[in-house]
What does this fold into?
Amino acid sequence: MLRPPSHPASQPARIRPAGVVTVTPSSPASNPVRGHPRRISRALMLRRPWFPAAAAARPGLGPGSLRWLEAWLRAVDGLGLGPDAMLAAVSTIQIFVHGSVAYEVAQRAAGYDAKTWLAAQGAYGDSIIASGAHPTLIRIMVEAEGPHRADQNERLFAYGLRQVLDGLAAALPEA
It folds into this structure.
């Protein structure tokens, strides 16, 4: 059973009741922890663009950081993982969230706009397609819709997080 950690600012180190959840990879309801990093951590870090770099450079051990870590560890407690595996699972999720947000923050700081960039690459993209030299890339360039979506970063984050959590869920010991 995976339980979502609550927001530490509202309920320090408490777990929001979620009941028993059967964990199966790729099942949308299988992993309630999903909402925590998407809803809280990503939004929080996007509002504080300095946070991903600071968190990577020096893990915080202040009261707020300890509440967050406690909440994360409680979310994976009781899943049959040993202490090292619990730390590894939490670290894996946090590294994905921090890295994803740091990438998005860097894009924003550089003034990157996907629509403008794609338009500027039009002639080059046409030459890549005309060359026929990279058939898989060409197929993706022609068929992919994601790069043209306004919510590209949100969708990439949700997809990546789902893959990370499904991978972790698949590696859980049999109950």
